[in-house]
Design goal:
The complex is a heterodimer of chains A (333) and B (277). Chain A is α/β, with parallel strands linked by helices and 333 residues long. Chain A contains 12 helices and 12 strands. Chain A folds into 2 domains: 241 residues, 3-Layer(aba) Sandwich (Rossmann fold); 75 residues. Helices cover 32% and strands 25% of the residues of chain A. In chain A, the strands form 2 sheets. Chain A has an 8-stranded mixed β-sheet, sandwiched between helices. In chain A, β4 and β5 form a beta hairpin. The N terminus of chain A is likely disordered. With 277 residues, chain B is mainly alpha-helical. Chain B is 75% helix and 0% strand. Chain B is elongated, with a radius of gyration of 22 Å. The chains are: A alpha/beta (333), B mainly alpha (277). Chains A and B meet through α2 and α4 of A and α6 and α7 of B.
């Protein structure tokens, strides 16, 4: 189901009707199905969903870094108005790290264990601007200072394994900031960190947005992080977006049964004392999705029309859900 | 605690012995003209096939040449051949293995089947065939031995590269827009080089042995140039009258190979992060 067209002029990232598929021994697997999303300048947009919901693949597609076996079946990806799918590999390479930066989940494994941190952090300068190494190294130290690492001069000379988890993630963020990209794609950057460090890293990302006007595409499965960090949120389920809207509206009035389920399965997001309710069942495999609404087999509110493709229902301004019963009181209660 | 300390002492002890033996061989090779008491080519028919004496510590051969001097000079050939052959094998194997792993698909298939083809011949047979077609001299011996080493290094380089490719830092490197060549040189190479260096030390021992075998068969260093292999071949004919002709170059070969093997094992233990600290 395509979103009705909206005015998206001046979006940093715009993905329209994107479908990505793999050929598997069990058959054709459409792991990302008609996903449309957009991120405006200086906006922090969360994409939330379980593992396997297609959020990471969507992000990799925006970087032009899908695995070789993946095929884009339809859709467009526009970065600052330029079509990524029409770029050559060389053009994409010139764009990655320069206009778009990626911050992966596991910082330790994302840093080269054989190189000193300072050099790695400044390396985008060498890759994109043909800067001499000694200047890139200087920049590395400055960047480490900018992400509030204590004693950046000394830290820059150390190897990644000498850093704590939080410091490694800061170093990755510093590397991402090197060329002041317009868009930062962060794939669960705080999942591997403990709560206090997580808060510091999020604080840092917010600061970056304020100072540089960077747009942030934030992938997570943590509703708590979304609640106090993002401006808008897309909820993904089994390869498709099922609800989108401003964060406060989604928490106030979750309209898709899946979003509601997520909220009820998360402790104390808005201080309620209700018992936690897990969502029954498993996310269906991409090859075994039901007809119609993809949640139908797990949904307590399913009715006969749910067996045919669900419509987008406008809940309020900028807030919509992919569910026939989205407006009904018993769901939105 | 004590068992661990004991283990560590034993390990370092062996590594030290290996380093000492290798140093002895390499220094003999480099400084042969200064430390050898005689020229390796000086004939002296007055002292043919004489046993160890004050004038000739390790005896003389059938032409009255000093065995000690010839053994010391022979180290030059061994070290030269081994260095060059390992260089050829390491460079060729690393390039082929890394390319196969990085490109994957058809390139990988073709390159690795070629390597298996080379692998399927016994090393000495392959060396003899290569020497026969290239011609018998030291340079060709070095090339032949180097070619024999390529598949081993290629397999190791390919396996290490494949596991490095799984690492997220390669994906992170792509995400900052690095080119393929930069990814290979900066991200992959430093992470695959350790096992290759260990393998190189062990290959060194094997190269020395192969060079001696080729010279023994008359395919490597040609007389009168001394090599442990052709000295052993000569000594074979005088086993009963003059056993030192075989024992001396044989022992030199043994100590050299032992030294490189101990060095290789020691390096592996030292560079293996699981055994470090």
């Amino acid at each position: 189901m395509a979103l009705p067209p909206r005015d998206r002029a001046g979006q940093t990232l715009e993905i329209r009707d994107l479908s990505i598929a793999f050929s598997t021994p069990r058959g054709h697997a459409r792991v990302v199905d008609n996903v449309s999303l957009s991120i405006g300048a200086g906006e922090i947009v969360g994409v939330i969903g379980e593992s396997g919901s297609g959020k990471t693949l969507t992000a990799l597609a925006a970087l032009g870094m899908l695995p070789r076996s993946a095929r884009i079946e339809s859709g467009r990806i526009l970065l600052g108005g330029e079509s990524l799918l029409d770029m050559t590999e060389r053009e994409r390479r010139a764009m990655r790290g320069d206009r778009v930066a990626y911050i992966p989940q596991d910082a330790l494994r994302s840093l080269n264990p054989t190189l000193r941190v300072g050099v790695q952090v400044g390396e985008p300068l060498v890759v994109h601007r043909a800067t001499p190494w000694n200047i890139a190294k200087r920049k590395g130290v400055d960047l480490l200072a900018a992400v509030h690492l204590r004693d950046p001069e000394r830290r820059a000379e150390e190897y990644p394994h000498q850093f704590s988890g939080g410091m490694q993630q800061r170093a990755m963020i510093a590397m991402g900031l090197c060329l002041e990209p317009q868009l930062l794609i962060a794939d669960e950057p705080t999942t591997a960190l403990d709560v206090t460090v997580q808060a510091q890293v999020l604080q840092l990302v917010r600061e970056i947005r304020r100072e540089h006007g960077t747009s942030i595409f934030f992938i997570t499965h943590d509703l708590g992080v979304v609640a106090d960090f993002c401006d808008r949120v897309y909820v993904m389920y089994a390869g498709a977006i099922v609800e989108e809207g401003p964060v406060d509206r989604i928490f106030e009035r979750p309209s898709h049964p899946y979003t509601r389920g997520l909220l009820r399965a998360t402790p104390a997001v808005h201080g309620s004392k209700e018992a936690l309710v897990p969502i029954a069942g498993q996310i269906p495999l991409a090859t075994e999705r039901p007809e119609g609404c993809r949640l139908v087999d797990r949904c307590a509110f399913a009715i006969a029309p749910c067996r045919s493709p669900p419509p987008w229902v406008e809940i309020e301004a900028n807030h919509r859900a992919l569910c026939v019963r989205a407006r009904e009181a018993e769901i939105a209660a | 605690m004590s068992a661990f300390a004991d283990y560590s002492v034993r390990r370092h002890g062996l590594l030290t012995l290996g380093v000492a033996l290798v140093a002895m061989v390499v220094l003999s090779a480099v400084f042969a003209p200064w430390i050898a008491p005689y020229s390796p080519y000086d004939l002296d028919v007055a002292v043919m096939l004489e046993g160890p004496s004050r004038a000739h510590w390790l005896g003389t051969d059938e032409l009255g040449r000093d065995v000690l001097s010839r053994t010391i000079f022979a180290a030059q050939i061994s070290v030269k051949v081994a260095l060059f052959a390992v260089g050829v094998g390491l460079t060729g194997g690393t390039i082929i293995g890394m390319l196969a792993a990085y490109c994957g698909g058809l390139v990988d298939m073709v390159l690795m089947r070629l390597m298996e083809l080379l692998f399927s011949f016994p090393a000495i047979l392959l060396a003899v065939v290569l020497m026969a077609s290239l011609g018998t001299n030291v340079l060709n011996a070095m090339l032949a031995i180097g070619i024999i080493f390529i598949p081993g290094f290629a397999r190791l380089a390919r396996a290490s590269t494949l596991s490095a490719l799984q690492q997220q830092y390669v994906e992170a490197a792509r995400s900052i827009g690095m080119s393929h060549s930069r990814i290979i040189m900066r991200e992959l190479l430093p992470n695959v080089v350790t096992p290759l260096l260990v393998e190189a030390a062990v290959a060194f021992a094997y190269a020395v042995l192969l060079e001696s075998a080729l010279s023994f068969l008359g395919l490597g260093a040609q007389p009168p140039e001394p090599s442990w292999g052709n000295m052993l071949n000569t000594g074979r004919g005088f086993m009963a009258q003059a056993p030192w002709l075989s024992i001396v170059p044989g022992s030199a070969l043994f100590l050299c190979v032992l030294g490189f093997n101990l060095l290789g094992d020691g390096l592996r233990d030292m560079l293996d992060p699981h055994l470090r600290d």
